[in-house]
Design a protein that fits this description.
InterPro entries: ISAs1_transpos, Transposase_11-like. It is built from six helices and five strands; from the N terminus they run E-H-E-E-H-E-E-H-H-H-H. The protein is of the alpha+beta class. It has two domains: 87 residues, no CATH class; 44 residues, no CATH class.
Length: 175
């Protein structure tokens, strides 16, 4: 499953038109009221038109996804398109989409926002080295069971001996 981006405007426009004018093979809607938010999600699954299957070998399904609701008392509405080589019902795709966002929120968002990986770093090998160290840090914090990444960073900051013991002895040490 691949999310459609602005670099594929023809494919996205085709999906958008398909969504407006054709009945979906299947549709599913969910409501999530956890984490101080209310999020409605709806997924429509469409069979890929033959013309697109020629251009995209293996393409089976086009998906239209809408999310709307309130996060932190702020309303939002998002629309997204996906393509897939799988032939599944909308509810099965819903779980795949949510798994994708779990990865995005648990890893990429943390790396971008909390660890500021997108900020400019010196050239050469420094960005790669920082990315490796950040992944290592996330692994340690999660293995030690800290509730949040910032909490783990605060608890391990300036604790060189403790980090060294973790590296040498494994993750069985008390926090």
């Amino acid at each position: 499953m691949i999310a459609l981006k602005a670099n594929q405007p023809t494919l996205y426009t085709t999906l958008e038109q398909l969504h407006r004018s054709s009945p979906a093979l299947s549709v599913v809607q969910t409501l999530d009221t956890s984490h101080n938010r209310q999020v409605h999600r709806e997924v429509w699954a469409y069979a890929a038109p033959l013309a697109l299957q020629v251009l995209w070998p293996g393409l089976e399904t086009l998906l239209w996804v809408e999310r709307w609701g309130c996060r932190n008392d702020e309303p939002f509405h998002e629309q997204m398109g996906y393509i897939s080589d799988l032939n599944l019902a909308a509810d099965e795709f819903m779980s795949h989409i949510q798994q994708h966002w779990t990865i995005e929120n648990r890893l990429h968002w943390v790396r971008d926002v909390t660890l500021e990986e997108d900020e400019a770093r010196p050239g050469g090998h420094a960005p790669t080295c920082w990315a490796i160290l950040n992944c290592f840090l996330l692994s340690i914090i999660r293995q030690l069971g800290y509730r949040t990444i910032p909490q783990g960073i605060r608890c391990l900051a300036n604790q060189v001996e403790k980090v060294y013991r973790i590296l040498c002895q494994g993750f069985s040490l008390d926090k």
